[in-house]
Amino acid sequence: MRSWSAPDIVPLPGTGGPLRIHDTATGRIRTTTPGSTAGMYACGITPYDAAHLGHAFTYLAFDLVNRVWRDAGHDVNYVQNTTDIDDPLLERAEATGVDWRDLAHREIDVFREDMAALSIIPPTSYVGVVESVDLISELAVRIRETGAAYEIDGDLYFSAEAATRFGQISNLDREEMLELFGQRGGDPQRAEKKDPLDWLLWRAERPGEPSWDSPLGRGRPGWHIECSAIALDRLGPSFDINGGGSDLIFPHHEMGAAETRCATGQANAHNHLHVGMVGLNGEKMSKSLGNLVFVSKLRQQGVDPAVIRLAMLSHHYRSPWEWTDAELPAATERAERWRAATALGSGPDAAPVLAAVRAALAEDLDSPAALAAVDAWATTALAEGGTDAGAPGLVGTTVDTLLGVKL
Fold first, then answer.
1. Residues 228 and 361 in one domain
2. For residue 370, what is the domain's CATH number?
């Protein structure tokens, strides 16, 4: 599947330090230790509606990881999927009278445009489920051959009882798992299952639904196994970071980790990174609630994408936060100050700014601290000037390369 255009990344003097991030499974800040090429997987959108700020905030966090690793001298193999066949997509297509394929293509195009406008570095591999059906069914067969899966009327389920270390990602008890499983696409109520927590690997063909031929019979993939299969194919097991929004910790990432361990005997990732939810009017911003702020609509209203990005960067990636009417004016004022300061003929020494931004981002992607370092330099530059003719240019490049904000 086609990705989107990449922003220009200008190398900075020197190199950044190792990235430390909060690992969901252990609850600790851990130093990532990639080799020459770092591997990262982020769960993508289900394209039944346009991308909202919650999506953008998630992919911004992974973009910062990408930028910090590159600045430290690593190549980055970044993989992202798009769930271009699933129940929510089919339901929206039926409700609106649009072919599900046309709906998916339309919304993926909008998503690409949003990501390019926000200067999000595109994935090395942007992979759809439809193009990966054979890959996914092959993984389901591998799991079945281990004895960890069973069939109900042609549907193939993973047995939670066979999942070693189940719960190691989310650290939830069974009661909490059952509640979330029912809320987030699971079917704990299906009476024929051995355990309410058993999850679907392959859904047998139903009348009127899209389906594909496979060694498991005609049907389509379950949700969790799509990411497991794509990540294994493009990254192999035990890559550096796997993640997405915090609402994916359970069941999606817990169950995906169990699938990979069953098929390979190895963990799917060394670290699990999860991004806080963005709210609006006291509720999590989500398609199901309909309380969305769309990136595309902000852009259509003439909002500078750099301002949208700055508004998001003012919040730490792990912290839930509320979008309010104050976000854009504050980000606009910050962008104007930074642009005025970097347009000066000279300014205060910029080397400490580069060091501070690098240090802040390397320590669990602390973007608010990085913004504060640039704020302090801009304030001094505008109030007092400076004698370093190269400083404004270095600050501008620092902001562009590490924060992805084009001044």
1. no
2. 1.20.120.640
- Considering the domain architecture, whether residues 354 and 281 belong to the same structural domain is answered as no
Contacts of residue 186, Cβ cutoff 8 Å, sequence gap at least 6: 197, 199, 251
Judgement on whether residues 237 and 367 belong to the same structural domain of the protein: no
CA distance linking residue 197 with residue 161, whole number of Å = 9
Query: For residue 320, how far is the Cα from the chain centroid?
Result: 15
How far, in Å, CA of 87 to CA of 60, rounded?
Answer: 27
Give pLDDT tens digits for 132-178: 999 999 999 999 999 999 999 999 999 999 999 999 999 999 999 99
Are residue 193 and residue 82 in the same domain, yes or no?
yes
Dihedral pair phi/psi, residue 65, rounded to 5°: -55, -45
State how far the Cα of 281 lies from the Cα of 104, in Å rounded to an integer: 29
Domain range for 398 is 326-403
Which pair of structure tokens corresponds to residue 295?
């990136």
pTM for the complete prediction? 0.97
Instruction: For residue 332, give Cα distances in angstroms to 34, 258, 308, 328.
Output: 36, 45, 9, 6
Q: What does the buried/exposed string (b/e) look like for 15-43 if buried means 16 or more CB atoms within 10 Å of the residue's CB?
A: ebeebbbbbbbeeeeeebebeeebbbbbb
Query: Domain holding 217: CATH number?
Result: 3.40.50.620
Count up the domains in the chain and report the number.
Answer: 2
What is the C-alpha to C-alpha distance for residues 244 and 241, in angstroms, rounded to an integer? 10
**Measured distance CA(403)–CA(104) in Å, rounded:** 30
Mean pLDDT in residue range 86-115: 96
